[in-house]
Amino acid sequence: MKRNLKDKLVVVTGASGNLGRALVTGLLQKQARVMAVDVDSQGLKDLTMEVQSSLVQTMVMDLMQASSQQAWEEIRSLEPDGIILNAGITRIAPFAETSEQDFRSIFEVNFFSSVGALHALLPGLQVKRGFVAAVSSVSGFAPLKFRSAYSPSKHAISALMDTLRTEVTGVDFTIAYPSFLSTEVKSSSKQASRSARGSLSPQDVAAAIVSGVERRKPRLLLPFQAKLARLLWALWPSRFLRMMEKRA
Predict the structure, then answer these.
(1) Which of 145, 148, 216, 242 would give a disulfide with 248, using CB separation of 3.0 to 4.6 Å?
(2) Is the peptide bond before 223 cis (omega within 30 degrees of 0)?
(3) Containing domain of residue 122, as a range?
(4) Is 115 inside any structural domain?
(5) What's the structural domain count of the chain?
C-alpha cells in the first residue's frame, strides 16, 4: 500500500545542502511537515526564506556530536513519522593524506549520527509504522578512488539499514544509492567544495527518494547507470575499477 506523506512529520538531516533542500521541497510538494536539521544555522535560515512554508521547522544540530540517543531527545519528543538520513561529508584525497581525524569526523557525521538518531527514534517509528530512508552512494557498495574514509562510511550505513530491516518490524527502510551529482560536493572543513562531476541533479535524486518512500521501495539505484555499476562490480570488478579511475 502506498504511503501517504500528507501531514506526516519527516526529519531531514543535512537539510541546508543541495540535496537536503531538494528533499525538503519534494516533501512539501507532498504536503508533509518537515523538521530540517543541519549544523549550518545560516543555511537553515536561507532554506526557510526559500521555501516560505509554515510546514517547515528547523533545528541546528552538530552531527559530529550526535552519536548518542540523548542528542536526539528533542526530536524524539516531536514523534516524527519518518526520517531521511541525508547528512554527509567527505574528504577527496589519497589514503596517505587522510588522517585518523578525517576518518573519525566522516564516520561521526555519515554513520554514528544515524546510530544515535535510530536508537532514539525507532521505537516511536514502530508505533507509527513509519519509515527510515538513508542516502548512501554508489561508493556504498563499491570502492571509489580517493574516498578511503567516505566509501567505508557509506558501506556502513548501507549495512546498518539492511541489518535493521531484518530486526525491526513495522518500519520501512529505504536506501538510496545515487551516482555523481551535478552540483558541488560538500567536503570536510579542510577542503573546498569540489566542482560538479555528474549529470544527476539533486532534484532528480530527491524526487526519486520521496517517491521511493511513498512506494516503500527498499533500494534505489540512481540513475540507471548505478544499476549497471552494481552489476559490473559484482561480475567484473577489474573493469569497474578502471572506469572509476576516470571519475576520481
Answers:
(1) 145
(2) yes
(3) 9-245
(4) yes
(5) 1
Locate all alpha helices (DSSP H) within the chain, ordered by sequence.
Answer: 18-29, 41-51, 73-77, 100-107, 113-128, 150-167, 202-214, 224-235, 237-245
What is the b/e burial string over 112-151, where b = at least 16 CB atoms within 10 angstroms of the residue's CB? bbbbbbbbbbbebbeebebbbbbbbbbbbbbbbbbbbbbb
Q: At what angle do helices 237-245 and 224-235 cross, to 10 degrees?
A: 130
Q: What are the cell numbers at 29?
A: 510538494
Measured at the CA of 25, the angle between CA 34 and CA 21, to 5 degrees, comes to 85
List strands edge to edge, sheet with 82-85.
Answer: 56-60, 33-38, 9-13, 82-85, 131-135, 172-178, 219-222
Per-residue pLDDT of the chain (248 residues; tens, 9 = 90+): 899 999 999 999 999 999 999 999 999 999 999 999 999 999 999 999 999 999 999 999 999 999 999 999 999 999 999 999 999 999 999 999 999 999 999 999 999 999 999 999 999 999 999 999 999 988 877 778 899 999 999 999 999 999 999 999 999 999 999 876 655 454 444 544 444 455 688 999 999 999 999 999 999 988 666 666 767 657 767 776 777 666 65
CATH of the domain at 68: 3.40.50.720
pTM, two decimals, is 0.88
Within a domain: residue 4? no
Amino acid letter for position 36? A
Torsion of CA 221, 224, 230, 231, to 10 degrees: 140
